[in-house]
């Protein structure tokens, strides 16, 4: 094994500089996870709903994947850096450190509007609303329901989103609107067997 690799392995095993190395590995994991999540999603959504040449589609996929990977890596790097500094300054880890670090980093990394950041922020919004409802029960701020609430949760979510789609669709996020158009509007239109079963719309004739 080459000497530099041996030296790096020894450093990693020693536990020295662990906070700094954790920041670097956080950056690495953010980049990898962002690419893993975005690439297949972007591939499917681009070929389902985006028009343009094959080159343009692959370029869009690569750009979205790069943006997601870069932003997630940057966020993890910034978050872990700030929490490490706060813990060092106060000689202990406090709960509000997490909020401050994420607040500051989120503003600079995910505060710039683009489609990728919009989707990530909306994804997190749905998760934290669900999590806060469960936390309220856990902390006994509200009584624990004596019946299954998930069917009612599903009913309210789907009732609201379909009402918005039918009557206020310009308020919905773009990719959701495209998906729902495909499901609910395009299924009302056909001309013959080809665009009833085989294609969503008649193939373009040259």
Automatic annotation (TrEMBL):
Family annotation (InterPro entries): Pmp4
GO CC terms of this entry: peroxisomal membrane
Name of the molecule in the record: Peroxisomal membrane protein 4-like
Organism: Lingula anatina
Gene encoding the protein: LOC106176133
